[in-house]
Amino acid sequence: MSLRSVSLFFCALAISVSAHAHEYTVGALHIGHPYARATVPGQPSGGAFLSIENTGKDADKLISVSTPAAKSAEIHTMSMDGNVMKMREVGEIALAPAATVDMKPGNGYHIMLIGLTQPLKAGDKFPLTLTFQKAGKIEVSVSVTDMSGKSSEAMHQH
């Protein structure tokens, strides 16, 4: 195999892996599958979801989030009290050593996107900056799924 063929092979492999890899690492923190659900025109806010695993021996905290996709982004928690949904902003999320925080729709933590600059459309992506107390900042790419939570890539695979 020529050097050019080997280089092309590794470039194709890197593109293939990066197209499917939706995970990030900063320090001892592993961020998995950042996504948001599509919104309807005129909807002023949306939510982003992801997982954060602390693989280290020291605690850390998610202390802020930001994105150009919205006027502001906040860390929220949501719970159900009977038939009443209660949502509130939390200043931070503690990340204990060897623990995982799963942000997902329905109950628990999520990132609230307030004042969307445009509707979130399935198949789109937008940047989200996560700031951790110890690990620092990392920018992740948030994939927008359809309202059922499926990505356009997943819907086209057989």
Overview of the molecule:
The structure is a single chain. The protein is mostly beta strands and 158 residues long. The protein has a single domain (24-149), classed as PCu(A)C copper chaperone (Immunoglobulin-like). It is 15% helix and 52% strand. The chain is built from two helices and eleven strands. The protein has helices spanning 3-20, 152-156; strands at residues 23-26, 29-37, 45-54, 60-66, 70-81, 84-89, 93-95, 99-102, 108-116, 125-132, 136-145. Strands 1, 2, 3, 4, 5, 6, 7, 8, 9, 10 and 11 form an eleven-stranded mixed beta sheet that branches. A hairpin with a 2-residue loop joins strand 1 (23-26) and strand 2. It is globular. Residues 1-20 and 152-158 have low confidence and may be disordered. This is Copper chaperone PCu(A)C. It comes from Collimonas pratensis. Pfam families: PCuAC (PF04314). Residues 1-21 form the signal peptide.
